[in-house]
Design goal:
By secondary structure, this protein is of the alpha/beta class. It has helices at 16-27, 79-88; strands at 8-13, 30-34, 37-42, 45-51, 72-75, 92-101, 104-111, 115-122. It is globular, with a radius of gyration of 16 Å.
């Protein structure tokens, strides 16, 4: 059987530098400069940014799904601290922190380039008895 392994996620932005700076500032991404391009690394994930000055934002309304990649998620240990960091660094909050299900909380922010990012905190679900 052929084994497929993660390589990268390709982003598209009207302003690749602004997008890269946002990811560095808000998500502590490492900027990786290569001739003629700017890419990112978050943990073991590679994000390649295509500069497309003519690109227009999608007409996405709050909660409306679009075809294709909707968002990607990052995991943090302390969502409250991460949310404070994001807002202090000017991240556009699309959806504030909410309980998604037992043991999982998250929020959504948007970067330049209209890239939707879910920030998650996962804790062992508490056992409840009724």
């Amino acid at each position: 059987m052929i084994e497929f392994k993660w390589d990268h996620l390709q982003l598209c932005s009207a302003d690749a530098e602004a997008t890269a700076s946002w990811f560095e500032r808000c998500l502590n991404a490492e900027i990786v400069r290569r001739p003629g391009r700017v890419d990112l690394r978050i943990g073991h994930i590679n994000l390649f940014i295509t500069s497309a000055p003519e690109a227009r934002p999608t007409s996405r309304f709050d909660g409306e799904r679009v075809q294709g990649i909707d968002h990607f998620g990052v995991l943090v240990e302390d969502l409250d601290a991460a949310f404070a960091h994001l807002t202090q660094n000017g991240a556009e909050v699309v959806e504030p922190i909410k309980q998604i299900r037992a043991g999982v909380r998250g929020c959504f922010v948007r970067s330049p380039g209209d890239i939707l990012v879910e920030v998650l905190e996962r804790r062992p679900a508490e056992m409840t008895f009724t």
